[in-house]
Amino acid sequence: MAMKGKNCVAIAADTRFGIQAQTVSTKFQKIFELGPRLYIGLAGLATDVQTVSERLKFRVNLYELRENRRVKPKTLLSVVSNLLYERRFGPYFVEPVIAGLDDVTSEPFVASLDLIGCPMVTEDFVVSGTCSEQMYGMCESVWSPDLDPDQLFEAISQALLNAADRDAVSGWGAVVHIIEKDKVTTRTLKARMD
Amino acid sequence: MECLIGIRGKDFVLLASDSVAGRSVVAMKKDHDKMFQLSSKLLMAVTGEGGDTVQFAEYIAKNIQLYRMRNGYDLSTKAAASFTRRNLADYLRSSTPYMVNLLIGGHDDNDGADLYYMDYLGSMVNLPFAVHGYGSFFTLSIMDRYYKEDMTKEQTLALLQRCIDEIHERFIVNLNSFKVKIIDKDGIHVLKDIRPTTKPPVEAEGTQQQQQLMDTA
User: Fold this and answer.
1) Cα–Cα distances in Å, from B128 out to A12, A24, B12, B125, B166?
2) Alpha helix stretches (DSSP H) within A44-184
3) Cβ separation of A24 and B127 shorter than 8 Å?
C-alpha cells in the first residue's frame, strides 16, 4: 500500500513469499526503487513481481538515458500501464502501486494499477493484494490529510500490520519506506510471524 | 515425490537430493544423481517433469560454460541464478514451458556461499535453507527449529540427518537414500550417501504374549 502525507509519501509491503499455505521465505522483496524518490510496490504472483520489476527497470533506464533526466511519477504510471497492457490477453499477475515525489516540484504522488494496466491516481492512499479490503478499511480509519512523516509512518504501519493480521496468507514481516524531499527512511516492522 | 534439500553453512552450501528415479508407481533406479555441475563452484539440483529436468539443466550448464569461455571468468552465484530465472520466466509463457523446480548452491570469492530456491514459475529467493517437494512439509519446521547461522559441516550434516529421518518416518513414499554434495571455496565435494538411521522395530504390547501362546500351542 502507499499513502500521501504533507510533502512526503510512504509505501509499505509485507515480505512473505508463499506457495498456497506454505511460507517459503519471510524476506521477499516487493518494493523496488526506480529513482531517488520514486518507488513501486508489486503484489501478486512472485515470478511476475520479479519479471515486471526487471523489465520496468530496463525501460526506465532507457528512458533516463534518452531523456537525460529522471522519470516523473506520473510518467512512470504510463510506462507501467503500457508494459502491462501489452500483455492484455496473457497478463502479468501483478497489481502495482506507485509512490513518489516529483523530481522538480517535490509534489507527492500515489497511484495504483490493475493487472492489465488500468491506472488510478488518488489523493489519499492506494492498496493492493489479497487483503485489499482489510487494507481499505484500515486506511480509511487511520489516514487524514497532511500527516507529517512520523505520523504518516505510524498510520501506514498500523494499517498494514492490522490488515495483514486478518488475512491468512499475508504478513510474515513488513517493510516501510518513508519518502521525503531530502531523504528516504526504510524501516522493517516487528510483525506477527504467523 | 522427489525431494531436494539445501542448507547454507559457514562459507559452504550443502545440497542433498533423493536418489530414486521413478516413473508413475515404479522406482526405476535407486542411485540416481539429480545434481548438475554448472561450473567449478556452482551446483544445481533439479526435480520436475522427466526430460525437462535434464534438458534444462544441461542447457543452463552449457551456457554458464560459454560465458566462462568468452569472458575468462566464472559467473557469480547470483548472476547464474538470475540467468536461470530469466530463462525459466521467458519459457513460462511460451508454448514449451519447463516444469522444473531447482536449488542452486554456489560459492563466490565476493559473496561467500549462497543458496537460491527457484520454482517452476521462475520465482527466485535467496534462503539459508530450502526444500522442494512433499518433503518440505515435514522438514521446514525442523529446520526452523534447529538451524543456526554459520553452522559447521558436522552440524549441518546432523541437521540433514534429522530431516531425512523425519521424511523416512512420516512420508508415505520410500526415499531411503540421499546423494549429498558440499560446495565451498575449494569446489564441489561429493560426500557419502545418507540413509535414514535404522531404529529397532517397535513391537506392539500384546504381541510378545501372543507369540509365547503360539509357541506353546
Assistant:
1) 25, 11, 11, 10, 20
2) 46-67, 73-85, 132-142, 149-165
3) yes
B122/A47 CB distance under 8 A: yes
Q: What is the pTM of this model?
A: 0.91
| Chain A residues close to B140, C-beta within 8 Å | 22
Residue A9 and residue A108 in contact, taking contact as beta carbons nearer than 8 Å: yes
Q: d(Cα A105, Cα B149) in Å, to the nearest integer?
A: 46
Shortest CA gap B217–chain A (Å): 55
Question: Sorting pLDDT into bands at 50, 70 and 90, what band is B203?
Answer: confident
Whether B214 shows a pLDDT value over 80: the answer reads no
ipTM (interface pTM): 0.91
Mean pLDDT of B190-208: 80
Stretch A68-85: mean pLDDT: 96
Closest C-alpha among B57, B63, B24 to residue B43: B57
The distance of A46 to chain B (nearest Cα, Å) reads 5
